[in-house]
Amino acid sequence: MTDDEPATLFERVTRRSFLTRVGAAGVAMGTGQLHSLALADSDNVGQDGTQGDIAPAEGDSVHVRLNVNGTLHELDIDPRTTLLDCVREHLRLTGTKKGCDHGQCGACTVHVDGRRVNSCLSLAATHEGEAITTIEGIGRPGNLHPMQAAFVEHDGFQCGYCTSGQIMSAVALLEEPYGHSDEDVKEAMSGNICRCGAYSNIVSAIQQVRRKA
């Protein structure tokens, strides 16, 4: 190119100038986003200057009637509330444990109309009209369910965190069409994880109750 020829677009834009322009554009966009967030936060500052919670929109709660362990409960809850959080946080039935919260460990197992359910994956509001049973509804000290008594007798737990879910699955298993072998029990209980590794004792406890049923 001679001094008299106009520079092309490619020749006028160097690598350094290109990166400089891109960086400047990113800063400008980021500044705009931060400014928008700052305005949103300023709208949420109380009269005392403290940051307040964003008030939920009207109608965010739903009214539900849940039958839990034979007792009818009327609650106003967020429609996104899981059955697990409902029984633990609203009804204070903390025997049902929150483990993985992804339906993979079985610690949160409850019964819904006699079927075992991972309560962390189920919305509470979908269970109106159904019979929900937690570990508190299976048995109490002095009046244990045979499965609870068998777990104690066979040392079917160590840390105990998974035990309520294990027992709930084991009780449901009594009404399910599985075979009589230990392998059948292991298959039926495969959705319940014991991180302490007390599996052989759990199987022994279940088999004792199955033989007597």
How does this structure look, described?
The protein is an alpha+beta fold and 213 residues long. It folds into three domains: 13-37; 64-137, Ubiquitin-like (UB roll) (Roll), CATH 3.10.20.30; 138-213, [2Fe-2S]-binding domain (DNA polymerase, domain 1), CATH 1.10.150.120. The chain is 38% helix and 12% strand. It contains seven helices and five strands. It has helices at 9-12, 15-42, 83-90, 146-153, 163-173, 182-188, 199-212; strands at 62-68, 71-77, 109-112, 115-118, 131-133. It has a five-stranded mixed β-sheet, sandwiched between helices. A hairpin with a 2-residue loop joins strand 3 and strand 4 (115-118). Residues 5-12 and 24-56 have low confidence and may be disordered.
